[in-house]
From TrEMBL:
Signal peptide: none annotated. It comes from Streptomyces noursei (Streptomyces albulus). Residues 116-233 form the CdaR GGDEF-like domain. The lineage of its organism: Bacteria, Bacillati, Actinomycetota, Actinomycetes, Kitasatosporales. This is Regulator. Belongs to the CdaR family.
Length: 352
């Protein structure tokens, strides 16, 4: 290779072109430029640096420069500039293609991982390439804001930089799917996902849900679905917490496991509220806020922007219509369960 860092194949034909240019003063033609672009692409694909590629061509230029060139020096230098530009263009094109292929492979892996529709053995092999070991137990956190996010979004990059700066390489994967930020990390320790939740909430101003920790690739799918269900549940139930944990919300799926029984409870317990002026909505909201406030009338009145007297009147009206007294511990449990069921079933907006 005589002083050059690359194999001869990457500079093949260049010396002859340079000699012809030195005698004629012409510029490189389309075929010659394409040959340099192709050399740049091959060098990038082979893992050689652009600096080494350019240095190899400069070395050929010094060694092959004719001592009795007919053309001005400027012409030869112009041809050299053309060659270097073509080399760089081909090199960058190969790099861009490699980046796009890597992005496509990463996106395909994430889709397969979160949908659970791929061969587990093959999925485990691909996972290590992206920093995950599926033999470990993982949990998934999902963050959503008022807008959709992509991996190139500044918000996603800011959250990732914060995570890497805090934890370094902890075999975690930050990505986006359907406009949401997603973090997959080993479930123990849970500090990675807790930190992600804080950073994502600050960056998006939205809500974050964390699924439970499960083992294997199927466990990641399950944790992801738990986080999505928690976000949907929070929206339906009007939960105000910025960070939700699926483990804390297990009672809600239990309550709706027998949907027909829950619908019957809502109809029989809260159905009479529809006879009130303005329908069931205002009294149902009053009950929900009253229970959320720990059945403290003063706090519930404050949250509803009502006087305590007005709140007490509404509770008395509920008692009158339903026969169940919110202040009675026995009745309170039935009413509270029915209110939760109404939220879950979107009643009275939806017919039961």
């Amino acid at each position: 290779m005589t002083g050059r860092e690359l194999p001869e194949e990457f500079v093949d034909g260049y010396a002859g072109v340079l000699g012809d240019v030195a005698h004629t003063g012409r510029r490189l033609n389309r075929q010659e430029l394409q040959a340099r672009r192709a050399a740049g692409e091959r060098a990038a694909e082979a893992g050689h640096s652009l600096r080494a590629l350019v240095n190899a061509h400069l070395a050929v230029t010094r060694a092959s420069w004719p001592r009795t060139a007919s053309a001005p020096t400027d012409s030869v230098l112009a041809a050299l500039a053309q060659a270097v530009d073509a080399l760089a263009g081909g090199y960058e094109r190969a790099q861009h293609l490699a980046v796009r292929q890597e992005e496509a492979a990463r996106r395909e892996f994430i889709d397969d991982l979160l949908y659970g529709g791929s061969d587990l053995g093959r999925l485990a092999e691909r996972a290590e390439r992206f920093g995950l070991r599926l033999s470990h137990a993982h949990a998934v956190a999902v963050a959503e804001g008022s807008v959709a996010y992509s991996e190139a979004d500044p918000v996603a990059r800011r959250v990732q930089q914060a995570l890497v700066g805090r934890f370094g390489d902890r075999q975690m994967l930050l990505t986006t799917k359907e406009g949401r930020l997603i973090c997959i990390a080993p479930g123990d320790p849970a500090e990675v996902l807790a930190y992600f939740a804080r950073q994502a909430h600050t960056a998006t101003g939205g809500r974050v849900a964390v699924g439970r920790t499960h083992g294997g690739a199927g466990g990641i799918v399950q944790s992801y679905e738990e986080a999505l269900n928690a976000l949907e549940l929070a929206e339906r139930m009007g939960l105000g917490d910025p960070v939700l944990h699926a483990a804390d919300l297990l009672v809600y799926p239990v309550l709706t496991r027998d949907r027909q029984a829950m619908a019957d409870l809502v109809r029989s317990t809260l159905g009479p509220l529809q006879e009130a002026r303005g329908g069931a909505g205002p009294l149902l909201e009053t009950l929900a806020v009253y229970f959320d406030a720990g059945c403290v009338a003063a706090e519930a009145a404050r949250r509803l922007s009502l006087s305590v007297r007005a709140l007490t009147y509404r509770l008395a009206r509920v008692h009158q219509l339903t026969g169940a007294d919110p202040a009675d511990p026995v009745h309170r449990y039935t009413l509270h369960t029915a209110v939760i069921g109404a939220r879950l079933l979107d009643w009275p907006a939806q017919e039961l």
